[in-house]
Amino acid sequence: MMLNCIAVDDEPLALGLICSFIEKTPFLNLKSSFSSGIKAMEILHEEQIDLIFLDIQMPDLTGIQMARLLEGQPGSGKPRVIFTTAFNNFALEGYKVDALDYLLKPFDYEEFLKAANKARVYAELVSQATPVTTSEQEEYVFLKVEYQLVRVAIKDIIYIEGLKDYVKVHLENTDRPLLTLTSLKALEQKLPAKIFMRVHRSYIVSLDKVNSVTKNSLNINDQVITIGDQYKDAFNAYLSKWM
Asked: What is the helix (H) or strand (E) element at residue 228, kind and residue range?
């Protein structure tokens, strides 16, 4: 799979190095390079760009600001971002704007290629996931975990716990939950409603994994989860079908 990409950096030497790395990578196609984020935004309305190698600290429009603008654009064909920066204090910000990776300057071609391969794998997963049937969509959900797109089987999800900025997805046959930077509401929209139910502002449960129920809580794999007041009517309506 060939990825169309651009490079954006206000430092000429850094920009030249990134462009040379792109040109020697067989699956990357360099469409153009820019020293300004504002100028780079223009090409996105004219060309199909799959990947942006993006400097963070630039005078007119920072890389973080540009990435946020890209997130707000409509449509599913948004380019993915790999940040390039000389400062290591932007890693969390990069993760929050859903960057694929984060290259700390100075980096060599081996590091560059590792990041580029993440973009290639992501693009291949997306292309494979797009033309699926409804039944297939209900078998898996894709989660962003530590700069990777991870496919998780719906049947393996026990319950989902919402934290401040993250969501913990608890799975069968593992004690270590997956941690993904998203909201509980956004993840709820990806899950089939006939299998999962929001029972608390901080919890979604897999209904077929529930072991027992009391008036105000449920037990799922020895985890007691309180049923929130605003969710009781929906949960009781579900229970009434089996009583």
From this structure: none
